[in-house]
């Protein structure tokens, strides 16, 4: 959606790599330019990571267990997600050049959130441009584009299914807020929420 609006950004996972326990500190990425940090429910993020590792990057053989085992893995699971989020949220709280937005707010009110982000980067956008960007960012639109190779020229492997016959190998997989409930047991969810509370303490 931001590309559609002409917001000049370089997209990054902030130095995080699934095969590493370590993160590059935010100062590595934060210079004199403005930055945007996209925060998402850490449980949803961790489930997305599970499919990234087991479907999209299966060739790396980073993890072969169940989703329940994945969330409990210190190297790849919920603790890792929380550690990464805390690092960036701490950096943002002390840096006026960092804007924080959330995946959930982009779902609930995409027009307002996109306008705020565009304005933050000095890009003026019209309602018509915002409406077009929201349509481009709809799940069904993006799913179809990924399936037919519509993103190949711009995004290459980053928005290419690992296996076109496996919906879980798509980068645009479900796009649901709270979708983790489809994959986790009550015990799994309780485990994640306990870790979230511990992280806030």
From TrEMBL:
<comment type="similarity">
    <text>Belongs to the sulfotransferase 1 family.</text>
</comment>
<protein>
    <recommendedName>
        <fullName>Sulfotransferase domain-containing protein</fullName>
    </recommendedName>
</protein>
<dbReference type="GO" id="GO:0008146">
    <property type="term" value="F:sulfotransferase activity"/>
</dbReference>
<keyword id="KW-0808">Transferase</keyword>
<dbReference type="Pfam" id="PF00685">
    <property type="entry name" value="Sulfotransfer_1"/>
</dbReference>
<feature type="domain" description="Sulfotransferase">
    <location>
        <begin position="31"/>
        <end position="196"/>
    </location>
</feature>
<dbReference type="InterPro" id="IPR000863">
    <property type="entry name" value="Sulfotransferase_dom"/>
</dbReference>
<dbReference type="InterPro" id="IPR027417">
    <property type="entry name" value="P-loop_NTPase"/>
</dbReference>
